[in-house]
């Protein structure tokens, strides 16, 4: 028996992304209702994304120019990390590849060989990143390949206003048949026998029935947590930050095509350039810093005039014990939270809803299907968690108790193994479709000061001369082509001029 009625609770980014994809791919024969409360509102932050968002936007048939125009969007080629490994350090997690593998040999092994041989011409790892070379010059163009070369071109994501994105998705979803109800849910009604959710009751007295419920109610987790009692696994022992102070401000003089993440004494600050303003926030640990001090640090590090009062958001890092329980699937903040250091929350919404589509149930709600979904989402959350812990753990900072505690903490076994393997051999492996690639792990490990003791013997197949020429050619192609790209500001202006 097919599911006919889907009820989405919540109209933030998670709610409207869910509505948009479900209408697009399963629309016919499915009645979709989304309930949101103006009185409660949305979390109101979330501006940086990662490249797979393009796949989502294409899947729902979104026009890029219209989307960038409607959301104040800009392009993002990576995240620059400042003061993370040590005070004064700076590196980028740039999207895309670095260098070029030869056969089965990942590129970084050639670079490591040259470094270990003491060759000064090897230079920085980021001399071989086209995204980095474009980003650091504030340049951008859509480019699949570097012309006349076998090298990959630019790999981009976006910065945008998530509130405007949700509004944009809402237009398309309502046009596609999604019914929106504005109102506050006061009660969740469950089946007396199997505990499934049958309906929700609004403040107005209206009752909305459904076969499948998607909980997009944000941190309050109205259905999965409050009604179904599914617990929350707390990861604060590894990720101690529990507050963010956010404030919009005028942009500085540059329109950077990358996010900035600047580490402070007990956390870090984001700067995200949109067309019309910059998003800023300070994520910190309330055990190590007062709110007043955190706000003062943030306000003292803006590039332009603040455009609103700063506001504090409290959170607890972790994940829902199960993401899908009975006939309820949690998507977005109700399913867990990882701080925005690697811009993963909107991505986790995307993968959850895509998985739900791929594992769409019927009215039998097969237990094996639910177990598979929970295992896949859990694995993804845990690997992203490890990647974020890595940034905190791998530091040499001695200027605050916070950084010392992060360096000295015991980290999950999965991360310890990865660090040991890289330190001893220079090897990195991507496991089971996990989100972050070898190149992402490489940049953070090298960027934060971890240089391997060795590299693969496969990298010895080039002679010293060949190695020198190989590296020099790559540097020259990347450098020359990055210098020829148009400016980021100009690229955004040209794109939005083509919007309808
Ligand atoms: C400080 C911070 C920075 C972030 N930065 C990024 C970033 O750079 N990149 C990124 O990808 N993500 C980021 N995120 C995460 C991102 O903001 C969220 O993942 C995303 O906005 C999804 O939120 P949501 O839709 O789950 O919840 P919300 O936006 O909180 O929406 C909840 C919805 O549920 C409704 N609701 C709740 N209770 C009821 C009720 N009783 N009745 C009716 N309706 C109800 C509300 O009205 C609202 O519509 C950040 C998060 C935080 C906290």
From TrEMBL:
<dbReference type="GO" id="GO:0004497">
    <property type="term" value="F:monooxygenase activity"/>
</dbReference>
<feature type="binding site">
    <location>
        <position position="333"/>
    </location>
    <ligand>
        <name>FAD</name>
    </ligand>
</feature>
<feature type="binding site">
    <location>
        <position position="342"/>
    </location>
    <ligand>
        <name>L-tryptophan</name>
    </ligand>
</feature>
<keyword id="KW-0547">Nucleotide-binding</keyword>
<dbReference type="InterPro" id="IPR006905">
    <property type="entry name" value="Flavin_halogenase"/>
</dbReference>
<protein>
    <submittedName>
        <fullName>Tryptophan 7-halogenase</fullName>
    </submittedName>
</protein>
<dbReference type="Pfam" id="PF04820">
    <property type="entry name" value="Trp_halogenase"/>
</dbReference>
<feature type="active site">
    <location>
        <position position="76"/>
    </location>
</feature>
<dbReference type="InterPro" id="IPR036188">
    <property type="entry name" value="FAD/NAD-bd_sf"/>
</dbReference>
<dbReference type="GO" id="GO:0000166">
    <property type="term" value="F:nucleotide binding"/>
</dbReference>
<feature type="binding site">
    <location>
        <position position="346"/>
    </location>
    <ligand>
        <name>L-tryptophan</name>
    </ligand>
</feature>
<keyword id="KW-0285">Flavoprotein</keyword>
<feature type="binding site">
    <location>
        <position position="76"/>
    </location>
    <ligand>
        <name>7-chloro-L-tryptophan</name>
    </ligand>
</feature>
<keyword id="KW-0274">FAD</keyword>
<dbReference type="InterPro" id="IPR033856">
    <property type="entry name" value="Trp_halogen"/>
</dbReference>
<dbReference type="InterPro" id="IPR050816">
    <property type="entry name" value="Flavin-dep_Halogenase_NPB"/>
</dbReference>
<feature type="binding site">
    <location>
        <begin position="11"/>
        <end position="14"/>
    </location>
    <ligand>
        <name>FAD</name>
    </ligand>
</feature>
């Amino acid at each position: 028996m097919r599911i006919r009625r889907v009820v989405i609770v919540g109209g933030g980014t998670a709610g409207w992304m869910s509505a948009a994809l479900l209408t697009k791919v399963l629309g016919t024969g499915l009645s979709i209702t989304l309930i949101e409360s103006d009185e409660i509102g949305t979390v109101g932050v979330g501006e940086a994304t990662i490249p797979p968002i393009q796949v989502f936007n294409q899947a729902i048939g979104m026009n890029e120019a219209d989307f960038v125009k409607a959301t104040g969007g800009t392009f993002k080629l990576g995240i620059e990390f400042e003061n993370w490994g040590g005070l004064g350090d700076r590196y980028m997690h740039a999207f895309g590849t670095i260098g070029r593998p030869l056969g089965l040999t990942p590129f970084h092994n050639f670079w490591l060989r040259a470094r270990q041989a003491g060759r000064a011409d090897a230079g920085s790892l980021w001399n071989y990143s086209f995204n980095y070379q474009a980003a650091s010059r504030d340049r951008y163009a859509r480019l699949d390949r570097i012309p006349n070369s076998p090298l990959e071109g630019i790999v981009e994501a976006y910065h945008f206003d998530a509130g405007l994105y949700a509004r944009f998705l809402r237009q398309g979803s309502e046009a596609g048949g999604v019914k929106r109800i504005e109102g506050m849910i006061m009660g969740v009604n469950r089946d007396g026998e199997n505990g499934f959710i049958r309906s929700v009751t609004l403040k107005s007295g209206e009752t909305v029935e459904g076969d499948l419920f998607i909980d997009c109610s944000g941190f309050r987790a109205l259905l999965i947590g409050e009604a179904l009692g599914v617990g929350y696994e707390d990861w604060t022992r590894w990720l101690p930050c529990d507050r963010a102070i956010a404030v919009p401000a005028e942009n500085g003089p540059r329109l950077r095509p990358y996010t900035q993440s600047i580490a402070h004494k007990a956390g870090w600050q984001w700067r995200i350039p949109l067309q019309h303003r910059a998003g800023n926030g300070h994520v910190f640990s309330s055990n190590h810093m007062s709110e007043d001090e955190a706000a003062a640090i943030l306000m003292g590090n803006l590039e332009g005039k603040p455009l609103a009062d700063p506001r504090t958001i409290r959170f607890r890092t972790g994940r829902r014990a199960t993401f899908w329980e009975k006939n309820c699937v949690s998507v977005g903040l109700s399913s867990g939270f990882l701080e925005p250091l690697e811009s993963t929350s909107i991505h986790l919404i995307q993968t959850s809803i895509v998985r739900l589509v791929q594992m769409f149930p019927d009215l039998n709600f097969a237990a094996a299907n639910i177990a598979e979904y929970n295992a896949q989402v859990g694995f993804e959350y845990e690997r992203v968690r490890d990647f974020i812990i890595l940034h905190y753990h791998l530091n040499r900072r001695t200027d605050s108790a916070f950084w010392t505690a992060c360096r000295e903490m015991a980290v999950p076994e999965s991360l310890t193994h990865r660090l040991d393997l890289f330190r001893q051999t220079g090897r990195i492996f991507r496991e089971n479709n996990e989100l972050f690639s070898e190149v992402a792990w490489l940049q953070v490990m090298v960027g934060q000061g971890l240089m391997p003791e060795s590299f693969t013997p496969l990298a010895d197949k080039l002679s010293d001369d060949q190695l020198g020429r190989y590296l020099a050619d790559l540097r020259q192609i990347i450098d020359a082509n990055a210098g020829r790209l148009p400016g980021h500001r100009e690229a955004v202006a040209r794109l939005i001029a083509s919007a309808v």
